[in-house]
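Service request form, structural biology core

Requester: graduate student, group of Dr. S.
Request type: structure prediction, single chain
Budget code: on file
Notes: please return the result as structure tokens.

Sequence provided:
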Amino acid sequence: MENGRGKRENGTEIVLFTSINAPIQFVFDCARSIDNHQLSTAKTNEKAIAGRTSGLCELGDEVTWRAKHFGIYQTLSSKITKLKAPFYFQDCMVKGAFSFIKHHHFFEENNGGDSNERCIYLWRSLWDIWKVV
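Core staff response, request fulfilled:
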């Protein structure tokens, strides 16, 4: 994935494509919802503990999350760094256990009224960097 300055970002990349039978604005809002995110991550007990802790994320909002992964509680803070409603938003890690995490969320509406979300997850852990050295 290019970083917007014509350079490729190195790291692990996962692309998810979801088609939803709903208007684009509804899908966009659901993807920005702190409350929906907490419901979808109930198994890891992920909670918003600082910054915006409920409602819809807007440009510039920061959220600090606490979750249990691999038996260890971790915190991660992210910020909405780009937003063009209802077509795109980007969130980036500003503090956490990875060297970087960036999510690109793209939305489009089909003629039939269905909406698609394409989410690109990019990350690089400190372990990934250590393996290269």
